[in-house]
Predict the structure.
Amino acid sequence: MTDKKPELSDAMKKKLEPKKFTKNPILGTKFTIAISSAKGGVGKSTFATNLALALKQLGCKVGLLDADIYGPSVPKMFDINEKPKSDGQKLEPITKYDIQCMSIGFLADQQTPMIWRGPMVTSAIKTFTQKVTIIVSTPQEVALLDVKRGIKMFDKLGVKILGLVDNMSFFTGDDGKKYKIFGEGGVKKTAEEFQKEFLGEIPINPEVGKCGDEGKPIVEADPDHEISKIYLDFAKKIKSTYL
Ligand SMILES: Nc1ncnc2c1ncn2[C@@H]1O[C@H](COP(=O)(O)OP(=O)(O)O)[C@@H](O)[C@H]1O
Ligand SMILES: [Mg+2]
């Protein structure tokens, strides 16, 4: 008898290694960016739709996959009411604002049982472990707890984290004063703690929510708006660094 642990075979060691991120995980694409928060309601869909539109403005060919199987927002935010065409094998994405979109919301209505939703998008999300991720959070303590968990998970999976975004970081009142509703600097601090890039802040602006609700995100509805310029700056940074 010996206390020695059995040696792992080379094949087994390889299997246990975290996957390296590749640039083109989804067929026909050059680069995939996942928008994550490990939490709901902090602005992922708003960020994803506006970033997609900003990248398009910079001349990129963009697709948008709404991977939220429980609360898809792309049909509403892009005002898409039709169903995707299918040849029986594949689904055709729906193009709106020059962006090819796919969402579980095109297929499942409110009544579709949750149990069916998972398998419907699983194949599209299978590529998840090979993506580059942007983490969006509000600066609130409870949101940041989830962010920290998310960072650890992506690191473990070998998914490169492109950076962290502080969404709804402050509100500017009629008096011109900045109100930091969810606290201050939490997302930046978290980025520093985990040695990730802090990409910047997006203030709370009612126009952002209004445009999303009306089915035309702010970057498309009003490209010269100060908030649109923030999204465009993110897109420029991403384009020049990665694309
Ligand atoms: N910068 C912002 N300013 C104002 N409202 C925002 C901003 N970002 C997001 N929202 C609003 O916050 C709510 C949640 O955003 P959403 O993108 O749906 O979050 P998630 O996809 O993470 O659940 C929406 O009503 C959206 O319009
Ligand atoms: Mg969402």
Notes: The mean pLDDT is 84. The CA atoms of residues 54 and 214 lie 18 Å apart. Residues 44-45, 68, 71, 73 surround magnesium ion (ligand 2) (CB under 6 Å).
